[in-house]
Design a protein that fits this description.
This protein has 2 helices and 12 strands. By secondary structure, the protein is mainly beta.
Length: 202
Amino acid sequence: SVNSWATNGAGHDVSHKYGFGVVDAGAAVTLSETWTTVSDESSATTGTLTCSQCNIQDNNANLVTVNTMVSEPIKAENVDVIVDITHQSRGDLEVILTSPSGTQSVLSEKHNDGGSDYNNWRFSTVHNWDEDSRGDWSLTVEDQGNNDVGSFDEWELIVYGTQINLDSDGDGLSDTNETGVYGTDPNDIDTDDDNINVFNDR
């Protein structure tokens, strides 16, 4: 539907129902002739995060919301969320991940599933394609059914993608080159304190 479309933090149109849309096969073949592969995969994980006093109220708009900060600079390709949720009817639960760019991924919506609990359950989304991973991520859980309660116990966020080559001090040299090639401080535009930086020296 039209309402399922949104623009993610990297400017890509994406839909909860249709993904990134239909592939133009002709354009894809043409692009493949000059395709440059991406860098090696990198990832960042929060490790297991415990949620204390995160009771899921029955059919209540008071969401359980948890947050975590990612500091690693990764250009996202896909994001996994692993959860432990104790609940008598997991089909009642809506689970939404929100990225630092504000992109919402509906990981689960109310559906016909009489099973209980999400035990070490892995959700995955590609809605954050090309977004910068750095910043505050949030996960919300809402019970949209009747006659059962539960608790949100643990979760983990894993971002997969490629490393963003930063230039933290804005001197025209990437952080990787500063530390690996020149032996300079990537956070100090004038590491040797000679009042000459890369831009002034050109």
